[in-house]
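Sample log: Alternative ribosome rescue aminoacyl-tRNA hydrolase ArfB.
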Amino acid sequence: MKEEIIIKELQFKAVRSSGAGGQHVNKTSSKVEVSFPIFSSEGLSEAEKERLKARIPNRISSEGILTLQCSESRSQHRNKAIGIQRMLELLKQHLKVAKKRKKSKPSRSAIEKRIKAKKNNALKKAYRKPPKLE
């Protein structure tokens, strides 16, 4: 993943933000929509594109565009910066390759301890039974 190239490929759209804010909300377009065309990107390898497609299919549109919205701040520039940061974090998070699990077996002492506990439990239950009369 090449961050510089990805940042250049991001597309921004300013939209009117919803919610409280009085007249300021009605006049300014402070909400920012950040779009990233995944499949036409030169900042991602083919393997990375496939990994993203498999991991977050519900966030990617049918055209292959990943979109985020940011309306935290009243400033359009601040929202743009937050949107870029979020997009990069989202890509990094979903491009991580999970470590393969190494099989392990319990130690000899752990096995002996478990068997000893089982025997003690069996004895405890055996002592609860009434004695057999022959």
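Observation: Helices lie at 3-9, 23-27, 46-55, 76-95, 108-128.
Observation: Residues 3-95 form a domain with the Double Stranded RNA Binding Domain fold (CATH 3.30.160.20).
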